[in-house]
Amino acid sequence: MTKSKKANAKLRAIQKIIIDGLNNLLSAFEKAYAILITYTVKTKDRFPSIYRYFDGLTNQHIITPSKALFKSSKIEDMGNFITANIMKRLPHIDEQNVEEIMHNPSNKSFLEMLTKGFGIDSDKEKTYTALGNVGFKRILIANRGEIALRIIRACRELGIGCVVIYSELEKDSLAVKFADKSYNIGKSKNYLDIKKIVKIAKQSECDAIHPGYGFLAENPKFAKLCEKNGIKFIGPSSKMIEKLGDKVEAKKAMLKSNIPIIEGVKEDLKSKRHALRIAKRIGFPVILKASAGGGGKGMRVVAKEEEVFNAYECASKEALNAFDNDSLYIEKYLEEPKHIEFQILADKHGNVIHLGERDCSIQRRHQKLIEEAPSPALSNELREAMGNAAVNAVKAIGYVGAGTVEFLLDKNKNFYFIEMNTRIQVEHGVTEMVTNVDLVKEQIKLAEGAKLTYKQEDIKIDGHAIECRINAEDPSNDFAPSPGTIVNYLPPGGLGIRISSSCHTGCNVSPQFDSLIALLICYGNTRQEAIARMKRALDEFIIEGVKTTIPFHQLVLSKRQFLRGNVTTSFIENNDIIEELKGIKPKKDVLPKDKKVLIVTTAVAQYLAKKQNGVHNNGKINPWVMAARQEAMSEGSLEE
Predict the structure, then answer these.
(1) Is the pLDDT assigned to residue 325 strictly greater than 50?
(2) Cα Dmax for the chain
(3) For residues 282 and 444, which has the higher predicted lDDT (pLDDT)?
(4) Higher pLDDT, 616 or 124
(5) How far is CA 615 from the centre of its chain?
(6) Of all helices (H) and strands (E), which one includes residue 279?
(7) Number of H helices and number of E strands within the chain?
(8) Using CA atoms, how far apart are residues 61 and 429, in angstroms rounded to an integer?
(9) N or C end of the chain, less CB within 10 A?
């Protein structure tokens, strides 16, 4: 008995030693873990870009932290550790060369080996900017629809949190579904409520706001309110937006940089009589334009003297409604020019590059409908001259961010500046397809303070891309809006096809917003291949429930002049596109599946009810007819 007690006491003593030892080990581990968490949080707060980079490497199992990492405080050891871990995991690395490369990780062979090892084609995967130590943690997207979804995707890839706002009508939108957080702003008009939007940004702890395009993208008051509240507006400064938003002031700035502009008055018109005097001096035709805006609003072409007064009044009213400013200016109207725009990127260090041009000549009432890159109208020499002019203009005014310099090109190959857009363009995807660079990500990084790492000679344009804007409009009825519910949505697929859209089956196209359904972009090695691919994609695109502009695009792409690249801003008028569309018989509307089910089930129910009650079809009303009547009553076309 005594021996048993002694054995038990010895066992308990051993157990206590083991437990105490484990507790001591756990205590040390807990302290080390607490220190690790503290330093991780500090790194994330102070150096978010480094944190995102390191976090990505560990999450993808590219590197595995070891004890050696935590024993050293030297940044060189950290770099060597990351490099060595990466090298070990690259499938195409020759270990005999590792030691040599490790001694000189800045040489070209090191970079080439890394990109090759990761399976990256350096000519295809391009980033034009390098971030510093400051990055955004969360961005509020002050927009909706396709562009909101586009920005969410860019934020996801950059490791940045995203917040969206939505109206009461759009609580089930894809942007709301995919964002980290979403806030209801009430009525649709509140997309323009700058105070409410900034309040939500502060409430959700966003350090930046992306305006997208349209709405508030070029509103200097919104940009200024963001600056006042310590929130970064992803775009140029409020002063720059105001300067370039005033078309007259923008032209003055271009003149100082020796950029050609169209002949006209260099100030706002004082009255319609003032407009008439200038028109007589420079000669008809002339064009009246809104000083405070673009996009075809507040714009009128005047061919004769007697049309000036009426055109002035109409343009002035339209400008006031669109931009809250009725100021107009006048210039000589170029007949049948080409509309060419250059995409630029500019950092805060004074570096500027352009990423080639887009041809936006296919327009209706000054609204772009088809865009392509590169332009079939430009020779290499002309492209270089126009690109240099765009870059020099941007450098001269000190612009920072992504932007577009727009020109008109006349039949004699003379080009003239018309305006600069201080935002991402609807058609930016065309440039992305031929340059393989994500413009939205570059725009965000430039707003973070990134520096351009590429020179102009490094930019290469590869292949050809065309974009068709698919809108909910009836082209056979003068492009009348066609709001409603999309009952069937099946986009095309295959190599070289990109769809930018937030629509889907069951999606409602509201008359309160832009009618855009999708941006269909097709890429090819040549223009001919891109056109062939676009024709095929348009044939495949199924959208039912609303009218769309697909028939318009199909007709344009069938025209010989388009196939030859002979397009101008008067292409639609010169080729009688509208008249031809009106002559095309619309396809018979296919009855939606839900209505078919309703008709069949109602008819069957009626038939079974009558059969159960002993009523036979001997001269009495057919149950199918009754079903049709019930359907009509449910839609309000008959009264009980």
Answers:
(1) yes
(2) 126
(3) 444
(4) 124
(5) 62
(6) helix 272-282
(7) 24, 24
(8) 32
(9) C
Neighbours of 373 (CB within 10 A): 29
CA torsion angle 457 460 466 471 (round to 10): -60
Prediction pTM value? 0.71
Residue 36 pLDDT exceeds 90 = no
For the chain, what percent of residues have pLDDT higher than 90? 55
Q: Which residue type occupies 318?
A: E
Closest CA to 551 of 467, 476, 469, 465: 476
Distance, in Å, from the CA atom of 536 to the CA atom of 628, rounded to the nearest integer, reads 38
How far CA 529 is from CA of 469, 518, 553, in Å, comes to 19, 21, 16
Residue 437 half-sphere exposure toward CB, CA atoms < 13 A: 26
Is residue 502's pLDDT more than 90? yes
Helix (H) or strand (E) holding 612: helix 593-612
Q: Tokens 């323009």 identify what position? A: 192
For helices 194-203 and 220-228, angle between their N-to-C axes, nearest 10 degrees: 30
Residue 434 sits at the vertex; the CA angle it makes with 430 and 438, to the nearest 5 degrees, is 70
**Percent residues over pLDDT 70 in the chain:** 74
Which residue type, as a one-letter code, is found at position 295? G
The predicted model gives 499-515 an average pLDDT of 94
**Which among 606, 477, 465, 630 has a CA at the least distance from the CA of 534?**
465
User: Average pLDDT in the 578-594 region?
Assistant: 72
Q: In which residue are the tokens 């010895």 written?
A: 10
pLDDT digits 0-9 by tens, 80-133: 555 555 544 444 445 555 555 555 544 445 445 544 544 445 455 566 676 655
**What are 139's two structure tokens?**
């961005």
Residue 417 sits at the vertex; the CA angle it makes with 288 and 304, to the nearest 5 degrees, is: 25
Please, are residues 322 and 360 in contact by the beta-carbon 8 Å criterion? no
Report d(CA 67, CA 78) in Å as an integer: 12
> Exposed/middle/buried for 156, CB within 10 Å: 0-12, 13-18, 19+?
middle
Confidence of residue 574 (pLDDT cuts 50, 70, 90): very high
- Rounded to the nearest 10 degrees, what angle do helices 428-435 and 439-448 cross at? 100
* Torsion over CA: 423, 425, 428, 430 (sign): negative
Query: 475: cis peptide before it, omega within 30°?
Result: no
What does the block give as tokens for 290? 């809104």
Q: What is the pLDDT of residue 165?
A: 97
Query: Kindly report the CA angle at 174 between 170 and 178, in degrees rounded to 5?
Result: 120
Distance of CA 87 to the CA centre of its chain: 36
Tens of pLDDT, residues 368-390: 999 999 999 999 999 999 999 99
**Does residue 509 contact residue 482 with C-beta atoms inside 8 Å?**
yes
233 φ, ψ to 5°? -85, 120
Tell me which residues are annotated as active site: 423
Q: Is the pLDDT of residue 74 over 70?
A: no
